[in-house]
């Protein structure tokens, strides 16, 4: 690829192969954007290095141990020494990505952030790589959320130039490209992972958070170059609403947000007439026919006035005050204030007030929603009443834009807790922004909800990408820990079996097995499995080693030992080298082993024996019989459970579906929300995550049973059912309770 620090060449073989050629009139503008990149990001990097030095020094000053302090000081020296190389390599990565995009065209699809793993094919995840990957992913998510408006405009303009749809993941200037470039430079450095996380966090604060400088200036350059100069930073507003997206990522998010259908025939077809009749029977009697009727458009206008007048009060109202909001009384007062004596509303408008009031009463009582989110959604009562009056299909059309927005916001709010915070870029801030825009802008154009739906769907999709990656990686780590624990137990069993019948072994053999060969066996078991030839050879070597240190009483045995020793030492050395065993320690052990072999050749029992009982595993999680202690078993006594009848709490724990949300009370009485993300088929260990995909709890099956038994965990049963469906069903149950029934929907 031909590129330099100043001018981008638009020639390249890949461009010809892909048949992508940038239009001639855009090339000067692209080079101008390249200059903005070269001017902006390196300057941000200078600030990052200056603040990083101070941050590392402060951490070293507060270090709790000498080794930790040394790690931070070592990182300071290394980052100072490597600064120029890091800056140059980072700039090179950015320019390569930028130039490749404009020479070869955008990638056909965004790169998958993590490889797909088959359920039965698991490879151990390195914790350090995991932590780095999560740090980078969090930076990308933060950048995309923080600079969403600028990125939207930039994506539209770049997409216009290349005649393809571009998202932030494929944008050569997007947070993903910039953060990955930095990751590629930092990843090879021989630094402790905790130090790398500090570096990534500093990059996030000083570079990622300040990318508005890059995006703002680049958008200006593109606009001056005639690229969509009048583009609004708002998301596209659709002229009408239709069915939910049937495919693609956005469709998936919205399908999840809409949840499961409720099988109630009254929710099918025209629902509002059914509700109107049920409400009419409940009230009994009709409004006085001789009283003048207020026109629907006048009612909507009065509601708009109430919406604006009450906006500040509603925003600051407590949850209990929102529950006491009397729309009918407020509207009657507004009607009387217009003069002209007593008036009444159209029966359909009057019924809509009752239905919306009951719907929001349900929202305020819904346990699945956190109180802060209830208060947020309750502010939409007046706008939703206007929608219901303007368009009665609001109640019967599941894909109505206002209904879909309400459902998707309620679904997204389920896993949110106050601990998640209300900072910019988060779910609460996004929902609050949408609610305030509805209150401020909605008069009678229902198309506003289509626009907001698209924007909220895009936000959820960006969140989903990070959440799915984090959740997958957390599950992989948990599986890896479980696999590692089981493999260690297997190694200990194998060693115990071979030591059975021996009271003691020479000290050098004990050291070889404990310090080195145990890890050799573990590595082979994890990499090759127990059906591999390497595993069998490594176990056989233990037998050969033990035989070699037994006194040889006749000439035949001595000759056999002499022939065995070279191959034994070679195999030991090869295995220990595979785990990078300390060479000096290895030489020392081999000298001791040689002395031991000399004694055996003389028919003398080697001195300095170590009792077999003292050869315990490092973690102490395997007893002297080679079996894991029953009390430490993660499966909580699976065999006993099979023969015993399960009580209701055990049944609930065992049948809890993946994806189920729980509200859990911790030891301090604080509540948090957790989703069952993964369950081990081997031990029953359960992994719970928050709505960001981060682990909040990992416990054995019996721990989950105890959660239910003690009442600490409550299942949020209906969160997958759309809020509107739940509310309408609850509403009809209330109306049915009068004993007057309801007509079938036609």
Could you characterize the architecture of this molecule?
The structure is a single chain. The protein has 746 residues and is mainly α. It has 4 domains: 213 residues, no CATH class; 198 residues, no CATH class; 151 residues, no CATH class; 83 residues, SH3 type barrels, CATH 2.30.30. Helix content is 61%, strand content 5%. It contains 28 helices and 9 strands. The protein has a 5-stranded antiparallel beta sheet, sandwiched between helices. Strands 1-2 form a two-stranded parallel ribbon. A hairpin with a 5-residue loop joins strand 5 and strand 6. The two termini are 67 Å apart. Keywords: Coiled coil. It holds the Pfam family DUF1631. This is DUF1631 domain-containing protein.
Mean pLDDT: 79
| Cross-sheet strand order for the largest sheet | 8-7-6-5-9
Number of domains: 4
Helix fraction, binned, reads 55-70%
Helix count equals 28
For the sheet with most strands, the description reads: 5 strands, antiparallel
Summarize it.
The chain has 746 residues and is mainly alpha-helical. The chain is 61% helix and 5% strand.
């Amino acid at each position: 690829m031909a590129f330099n620090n100043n001018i981008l060449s638009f020639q390249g073989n890949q461009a010809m192969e892909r048949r992508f050629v940038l239009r001639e009139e855009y090339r000067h503008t692209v080079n101008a954007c390249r200059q903005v990149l070269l001017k902006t990001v390196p300057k941000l990097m200078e600030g990052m290095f200056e603040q990083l030095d101070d941050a590392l020094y402060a951490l070293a000053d507060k270090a709790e141990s000498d080794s930790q302090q040394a790690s931070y000081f070592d990182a300071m020296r290394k980052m100072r020494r490597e600064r120029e190389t890091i800056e140059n390599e980072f700039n090179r990565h950015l320019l390569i990505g930028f130039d490749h995009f404009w020479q070869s065209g955008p990638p056909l699809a965004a790169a998958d952030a993590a490889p797909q793993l088959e359920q039965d094919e698991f490879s151990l995840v390195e914790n350090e790589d995991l932590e780095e990957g999560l740090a980078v992913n969090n930076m990308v998510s933060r950048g995309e959320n923080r600079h969403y408006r600028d990125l939207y405009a930039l994506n539209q303009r770049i997409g216009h130039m290349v005649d393809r749809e571009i998202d932030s993941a494929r944008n050569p200037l997007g947070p993903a490209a910039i953060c990955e470039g930095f990751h590629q430079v930092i990843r090879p450095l021989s630094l402790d992972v905790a130090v790398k996380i500090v570096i990534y966090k500093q990059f996030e604060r000083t570079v990622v958070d300040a990318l508005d400088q890059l995006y703002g200036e680049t958008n200006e350059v593109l606009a001056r170059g005639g690229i969509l100069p009048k583009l609004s930073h708002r998301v596209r507003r659709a002229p009408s609403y239709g069915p939910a997206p049937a495919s693609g990522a956005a469709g998936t998010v919205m399908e999840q947000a809409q949840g499961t259908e409720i099988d109630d025939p009254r929710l099918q077809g025209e629902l509002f007439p059914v509700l109107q009749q049920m409400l009419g029977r409940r009230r009994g009697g009709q409004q006085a026919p001789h009283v003048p009727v207020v026109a629907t458009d006048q009612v909507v206008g009065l509601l708009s006035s109430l919406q604006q007048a009450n906006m500040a009060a509603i925003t600051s109202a407590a949850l209990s005050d929102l529950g006491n909001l009397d729309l009918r009384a407020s509207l009657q007062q507004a009607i009387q204030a217009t003069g002209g004596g007593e008036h009444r509303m159209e029966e359909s408008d009057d019924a809509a007030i009752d239905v919306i009031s009951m719907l929001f009463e349900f929202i305020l009582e819904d346990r699945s929603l956190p109180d802060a989110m209830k208060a947020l959604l309750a502010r939409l009562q007046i706008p939703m009443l206007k929608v219901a009056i303007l368009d009665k299909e609001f109640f019967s059309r599941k894909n109505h834009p206002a209904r879909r927005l309400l459902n998707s916001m309620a679904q997204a709010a389920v896993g949110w807790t106050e601990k998640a915070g209300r900072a910019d870029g988060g779910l609460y801030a996004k929902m609050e922004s949408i609610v305030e825009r509805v209150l401020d802008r909605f008069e009678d154009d229902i198309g506003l909800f289509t626009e907001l739906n698209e924007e909220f769907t895009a936000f959820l999709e960006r969140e989903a990408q990070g959440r799915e990656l984090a959740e997958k990686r957390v599950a992989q780590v948990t599986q890896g820990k479980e696999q590692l624990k089981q493999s260690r137990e297997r190694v200990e069993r194998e060693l115990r079996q071979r030591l059975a019948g021996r009271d003691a072994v020479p000290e050098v053999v004990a050291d070889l097995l404990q310090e080195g060969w145990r890890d050799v066996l573990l590595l082979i078991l994890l990499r090759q499995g127990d059906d591999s030839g390497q595993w069998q050879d490594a176990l056989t070597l233990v037998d050969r080693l033990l035989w070699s240190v037994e006194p040889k009483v006749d000439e035949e045995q001595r000759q056999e030992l002499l022939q065995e020793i070279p191959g034994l030492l070679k195999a030991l050395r090869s295995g220990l080298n595979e785990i990078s065993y300390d060479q000096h320690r290895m030489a020392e052990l081999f000298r001791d082993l040689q002395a031991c072999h000399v004694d055996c050749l003389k028919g003398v029992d080697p001195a300095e024996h170590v009792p077999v009982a003292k050869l315990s595993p490092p973690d102490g999680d395997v007893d002297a019989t080679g079996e894991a202690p029953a009390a430490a078993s993660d499966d909580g006594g699976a065999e006993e459970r099979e023969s015993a009848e399960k009580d209701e709490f055990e049944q609930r724990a065992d049948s809890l579906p993946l994806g189920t949300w729980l509200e859990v009370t911790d030891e301090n009485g604080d509540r948090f929300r957790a989703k069952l993300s993964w369950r081990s088929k081997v031990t029953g260990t359960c992994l719970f995550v928050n709505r960001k995909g981060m682990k909040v709890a990992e416990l054995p099956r019996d721990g989950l049973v105890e959660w239910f038994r003690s009442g600490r965990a409550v299942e949020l049963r209906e969160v997958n059912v759309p809020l509107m469906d739940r509310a309408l069903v609850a509403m009809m149950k209330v109306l049915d309770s009068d004993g007057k029934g309801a007509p079938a929907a036609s």
